From TrEMBL:
Keyword terms of this UniProt record: Amino-acid biosynthesis, Aromatic amino acid biosynthesis, Lyase
Site note Transition state stabilizer, residues: 17
Native organism taxonomy: Bacteria, Bacillati, Candidatus Margulisiibacteriota, Candidatus Termititenacia, Candidatus Termititenacales
Organism: Termititenax aidoneus
Family matches, as PROSITE patterns: DEHYDROQUINASE_II
EC category name: lyase
One Gene Ontology biological process: chorismate biosynthetic process
EC number(s) given by UniProt: 4.2.1.10
InterPro entries according to UniProt: DHquinase_II (IPR001874), DHquinase_II_CS (IPR018509), DHquinase_II_sf (IPR036441)
Molecular function (Gene Ontology), one example: 3-dehydroquinate dehydratase activity
Free-text function comment from the UniProt entry: Catalyzes a trans-dehydration via an enolate intermediate.
Active site: 22 (proton acceptor), 99 (proton donor)
Coiled-coil blocks: none
Protein name, as recorded: 3-dehydroquinate dehydratase
Amino acid sequence: MKILVIHGPNLNLLGSREKKFYGKTTLAAINTELASIAKKNQAVIKFFQSNIEGEIVSQIQDSRKKFDYIILNAGAYTHYSIALRDAISGVKAKVIEVHLSNIHAREKFRRESVIAPVCLGQIAGFGKDSYRLALEYILSL
Ligand code: DQA
């Protein structure tokens, strides 16, 4: 199984950014935990973070033929990026949408995900464990 984890804008600041929503764990620590779970399960996992919408679009396009699944936290782009949605629709890799916070329990503008309809499913509200749950689902297949 080949899995790509994409972290969108502002997620490089995890650990110091709005801890009440996103927790104290850094992005590096999340990636380390996921890498160790993947290794135990003989899966290949790669990580990418960008604050730039176009770079995330390119990364999704490049996943063609290289990855079976993408775990995607698109950050704020979740709520308005049709470009990201189109990129997801255009590739074979199946995408699982994740969020640390429960986007449905926050401001109204966060309740809509424009990418949700083209993703396999959504995991939101479990902090860093949202990523782990997505990975464990993939590994269980
Ligand atoms: C987020 C939720 C988004 O609404 C927000 O813009 C983020 C993080 C989350 O993981 O909870 O940057 O995707």
